[in-house]
Amino acid sequence: MSLVAGRGPFGNDPAGWFTPAVPETVVFIEPHPRRVQAFRDGRTVIDTERALMVHRLGRPLSYVFPSDEIGDLPGEPEPNAPGYVAVPWDAVDAWSEEGRRLVHYPPNPYHRVDCRPTQRRLRVEVAGTTLVDTSDTIILFETSLVPRLYVDPALVRTDLLQRTETTSYCNYKGYATYWSAVIGDVVVPDIAWSYPDPMPESTQIKGFLSFDAAKVDIVAELPESTLAAGVFEQR
Question: What is the C-alpha separation between 147 and 143, in angstroms, rounded?
Answer without folding.
Answer: 9
